[in-house]
Design a protein that fits this description.
This protein is of the alpha/beta class. Helix content is 30%, strand content 17%.
């Protein structure tokens, strides 16, 4: 054997070994999901008083998508779309019906199922998808738990210090305030109260609370500890199998209840309200869209706004109580996120772990006389989205391109060297649907790119109700480009906002003559292209001027 031939063989062997090594080192993935989080992050452009040192520290190390949007501003359909990569109009999963029973989604691989199938260990805990499926995971720890809540031994109740009519909404959305010692407190029926976690299906477990220093942990704190411990264990294992780990935190989803120390960060007398303009809802059309619908969530934001105003005597007083509780819950979940990130960064895993931090949708803080999600306006559809990819993303970079959560799945496949068809398909059967989103890796690499292969607009949908039987042409839609937001309700009413001159969406220019008429037509055509079934002929029963 000649020397040159030996050298060639040696080089080939080294190349093969390097290839195997690279294959063995496929990146790990850590997904952190936060429920109902709007832009109330420090230095994110939201509430000026927000305190989120841990998420802000992560943002400084990651790429920030400043124009990221949910595909459906409700927990169930948003998470279904995110983790299957499929638009609601393709799955017809618009609302809270279990995705497991949806023909399209159940025949498509979730993100977790795909990574498990290609050899990842897939771990999870907390609220990831709205409805969980055990066999998606290598191991799943704790189910979603909206507690702690006051409990009288039979019924979960709102915080006892919340007055009617806001408390009448119920223990989920009509409850806010700090943990208090419930010793001696009773329900209206005279039953003693105590804090509890759990739910009717899995059972209730008392949560001990004497004070902030002497109490049991909350479900979010339990999940943070589990995820941190899991990362520490994965860092020491000899198993070379890559992992996908997802942890879902409930706060700031209602009930807005957190330890007293977080409320102390935001004294009520110092609370500033969101930037709100009086009569801002006057030129909007959601109130018309829900008149003949039968989905309570369509009008719920208005009802919550009116209830908290009545409960505390004025809009300002009610919104101050809400804002204080929301900021307190955001600060609490920030500590939970920090615990998980610290565990990653103090381990040997950080250099080979992609981290995604996202919310499922935003939340109004009283803008447009609305206090909820499930609208098609900016406050409800915009989400914080951050990604850190070792060796690719630039620390603290900002991406202004409009994207949506449906783009996360194909991005992770791309970053890990997979595709929607190789080495396996994201389809389980022909009844499933291919991924609708696009990889954002080019934007992660070059945050200043003026264009990308993905959609020119982020698409969001709101369910119009059982009356319309999930027919795509009969739902409500919005698209958001880098500059404009366009909304089309199933009544044919339209809204158009120019974020260059109107960042708070105070002025609907859809009916303004002049330059905006051409823009409205372009946005309508773009929406129709994105949602093929949506055709204005579906609204032919309306007066013609409502189409213009």
């Amino acid at each position: 054997m000649t020397t040159n031939f030996r050298l060639i063989l040696c080089l080939l062997f080294i190349g093969f070994a390097a290839q195997v090594k690279a294959e063995d080192r496929r990146p790990n993935i850590l997904v952190i999901m936060i429920d109902d989080l709007n832009d109330c992050l420090t230095n994110w452009g939201g509430h000026a008083q927000s305190l989120t040192p841990n998420m802000s520290r992560f943002a400084d190390s990651a790429a920030r998508f400043k124009r990221a949007y949910t595909n459906a501003p409700m927990c169930g359909p948003s998470r279904a779309s995110l983790f299957t990569g499929i638009y609601p109009h393709h799955s017809r999963n618009y609302y809270q019906a279990p995705w497991l029973k949806n023909e399209v989604l159940s025949n498509s691989k979730t993100m977790m199922e795909y990574f498990k199938a290609v050899g990842y260990n897939v771990f999870g805990s907390g609220k990831i998808m709205h409805h969980n499926k055990a066999d998606m995971w290598t191991h799943f720890e704790n189910p979603a738990d909206y507690s702690p809540t006051p409990f009288d031994g039979q019924t979960r109740l709102p915080h006892p210090d919340v007055p009617a009519p806001f408390a009448d909404i119920g223990w989920v959305d009509g409850s806010l305030g700090p943990f208090i010692n419930l010793a001696g407190r009773t329900s209206e029926e005279g039953k003693p109260l105590h804090w509890t976690t759990g739910n009717p299906k899995l059972g209730y477990k008392p949560m001990r609370y004497i004070n902030d220093e002497d109490r049991d942990p909350t479900p979010d704190e339990i999940n943070a500890q589990w995820a941190a411990d899991q990362l520490k264990q994965l860092a020491t294992t000899k198993d070379q199998q890559p992992f996908f780990l997802a942890v879902g935190f409930l706060r700031p989803h209602t009930p807005l209840v957190a330890p007293q120390k977080y409320f102390d960060l935001f004294p009520l007398e110092d609370i500033e309200l969101a930037v709100i303009q009086s009569e801002d809802a006057a030129d909007t059309h959601l109130k018309i869209a829900y008149k003949d619908g039968d989905v309570h969530a369509l009008r719920f934001g208005k009802e919550m706004f009116e209830a908290i105003t009545a409960a505390y005597g004025s809009t300002e007083a009610g919104l101050k109580k809400w804002t204080q509780a929301y900021l307190a819950c955001v600060a609490a979940v920030d500590d939970n996120v920090g615990q998980v990130l610290d565990a990653l960064e103090e381990s040997t895993l950080a250099d080979n772990t992609i981290v995604v931090l996202a919310s499922d949708h935003g939340f109004h803080m009283g803008e447009k006389d609305y206090l909820y999600k499930n609208s098609l306006w900016e406050e409800s559809t915009r989400v914080p989205l951050m990604m850190r990819v070792p060796g690719l993303t630039q620390a603290g970079s900002t991406i202004q391109q409009a994207v949506s959560l449906v783009d996360v799945y194909p991005t992770l496949l791309d970053l890990c060297g997979f595709s929607a068809s190789a080495p396996i398909s994201t389809l389980k059967t022909a009844k499933g649907h291919q991924l609708d989103g696009y990889s954002m890796s080019a934007l992660l690499k070059n945050p200043n790119k003026k264009s990308w292969k993905g959609s020119k607009a982020a698409l969001s949908a709101v369910y119009a109700g059982q009356k319309y039987k999930s027919k795509p042409a009969d739902q409500h839609y919005a698209i958001r480009t880098n500059r404009f937001r366009y909304i089309l309700y199933n009544t044919g009413h339209e809204e158009l906002y120019d974020h260059q001159s109107d960042p708070y969406e105070w002025k609907n220019v859809a009916n303004q003559s002049g330059k905006y008429q051409g823009r409205k037509r372009k946005m309508r055509k773009l929406l129709q292209k994105l949602v093929a079934p949506v055709d204005l002929s579906a609204f032919s029963h309306l007066p013609q001027d409502q189409h213009n």
